[in-house]
């Protein structure tokens, strides 16, 4: 039956059955996909393990051992569960043999209709663009941290070592202009694998330095409830910080907005949803382990005074070369992550342009080019122009808004609940036709409501932090 269905689709699409059988094209006319469990896991790890992993020590310090560790585990389990629900929405109506949904918004439109499709698109692409701008800032902070580390090493820890972030943002933008010409997600596998290894590298260094500090007897006092009220902060400030910590942890597990696009790189020789679920388990088990070790070792090392970033906040000064190496790893990882988060935006705009100007040679023309005998690629003038403009705008906004990480925290707090929880749950309910007030429906809605309340609290904490950032920073004057 499945074979007859496949042959019917090939016949209706007008494709050459011989080319489809040989694997040159999928049954829907698109080039054959080559992704597998390992490349998919690399994409997920690149997307999910950002440099924010190094801020988890601060989060645990605000929440304490009990709530901090429990929050990390709970968010990991919720994200794994809802990501597996979303994996079943890649094809419709049957999750194994149905029609492909190429993007997250396509899946929402198929299962929930046009109104939800528009709402999802606004939230998703706002978050993706925000991530790109935030990564530009974060990468520049790590580059400046390398220069500051060498300054402190040569001139002493009390030296005035302050440098502008702007030249580093411009340099990163120039690099990303070239990398943005990678045509699509399917060509990002090698970059994602390199970026994933870089994330392991700086995470290991951060954990190792914190662990060494603890076992050498330099660890600081910790408590079950975290930062103590009345000693360093007021009760109100403690509450705001806890809300911000919830938001940071929720944001650290946000990758569902890319899951369908990542799943669309998997070859169809096996049902994609089954492979994707294995990749989800592998990636989240890996990331949760790293998150727990970085958060717990970092808190044990620094106690209530855990820095916002173990490596750029100068919790460690020596060995300076190892701190420098970790920051280099962060920069390389963020260069790759920039592309992982940019590609869905590029694809959405270019798909719209292809439909709008289908006869334009500027939009549709592909011109074969080569560098040497091995590196061959197709140039497209619209892709070159619009992606360059996008990178320039992102870099300019990053320079103009040195407090954008606080805006990014707000975007993360707002975006986590709808993209990671609400849409996957509602699509699953619609797809499986789960009746209202059944036990399964009530259980899914309980997850929905709890995550919404946490996201609401995190949003309030982010707004409070954002108001402080507006007063403390000026446009185009970012310094570290």
Automatic annotation (TrEMBL):
Residue intervals passing through the bilayer: 37-56, 63-82, 122-146, 166-182, 188-212, 279-300, 320-341, 384-401, 407-429, 441-466
Keyword Protein transport tagged: no
Keywords: Amino-acid transport, Cell membrane, Membrane, Symport, Transmembrane, Transmembrane helix, Transport
Record's keyword annotation contains Membrane: yes
Classification via InterPro entries: AA_transpt_TM (IPR013057)
Primary localization class, coarse: membrane
Record's GO cellular component terms: plasma membrane
Similarity comment text for this entry: Belongs to the amino acid/polyamine transporter 2 family. Amino acid/auxin permease (AAAP) (TC 2.A.18.2) subfamily.
UniProt protein name: Amino acid permease 8
Organism from which the protein derives: Camellia sinensis
